[in-house]
Automatic annotation (TrEMBL):
Quaternary assembly: Monomer.
Domain of life (superkingdom): Eukaryota
Annotated signal sequence range: 1-18
Name of the featured protein: Heme-binding protein 1
GO molecular function term, any single one: heme binding
Record family assignment: Belongs to the HEBP family.
One cellular component term from this protein's GO annotations in UniProt: cytoplasm
Keywords in alphabetical order: Cytoplasm, Signal
Length: 216
């Protein structure tokens, strides 16, 4: 008979595998040891539907006209955190993707952007608190969610992200899919030093019944 403790260990292992785990499980996540893993619910020619479990990130916000301007400040704060500006003084390994929350705003209007680094599995249960820019750097937990995803190559910029987001929203509207408005997430999987075979994604959180039910 399997003991209760053995069952608990198995459940924890399965949970870790379904959230933050070995990047070799994703073809496009090749520059970090750990990546944000997901269950692929279904896919069409225009998008994928993924299920992500709740995980913790270290995050920071910045108000700006453009994502590029916000990214310079937010990345620096988060990089300092993983380099040891935390209560344990730990250097924390980089994971993928880096996610930027993009506000829904007009051209040349300011909006609040949020950049997030996914915390490695080792720190998911008890992430160290920031000790630098404590008023701006914080631990953020995303909930269990279904996400519509559109992937694209090249560089993640305001223009490329905007184009991909428009294509995804048009495809979802045509399919009658319900998704949360007010902004979307831009996910990048590569170092700035990577010149080729880059992988980026646009995410819209699903809100209601999914327009596809399973994989072929």
């Amino acid at each position: 008979m399997i003991s209760v403790s053995a069952v608990m260990v198995l459940m924890l292992a399965l949970t870790a595998e379904a959230t933050v785990g070995d990047s070799s499980q994703l073809d496009f996540c090749s520059e970090t040891n750990e990546c944000f893993l997901f269950d692929l619910i279904c896919k069409t020619d225009d998008y994928e539907v993924r299920h992500y479990k709740s995980v913790k990130w270290v995050s920071t916000n910045e108000t700006s006209f453009l994502m590029e301007f916000a990214a310079m400040k937010t990345f620096r704060r988060l990089y300092n955190y993983i380099q040891g500006a935390n209560e344990k003084g730990k250097k924390i390994e980089m994971t993928a993707p880096v996610v930027m929350r993009i506000p829904d705003k007009g051209f040349l209007q300011t909006g609040e952007y949020r950049m997030s680094f996914l915390l490695p599995a080792e720190y998911q249960a008890d992430p160290p608190k920031p000790i630098d820019n404590e008023d701006k750097v914080y631990i953020y937990e995303t909930k269990d969610m279904n996400v519509y995803v559109r992937s694209y190559g090249g560089w993640l910029t305001t223009i490329s992200d905007g184009s991909a987001a428009k294509s995804l929203s048009s495809a979802l509207d045509s399919a009658g899919a319900k998704y949360k408005k007010g902004g979307h997430d831009a996910a990048g999987y590569n170092s700035p030093m990577t010149l080729f075979q880059r992988h980026n994604e646009v995410w819209f959180e699903a809100d209601g019944e999914l327009p596809c039910t399973g994989l072929d």
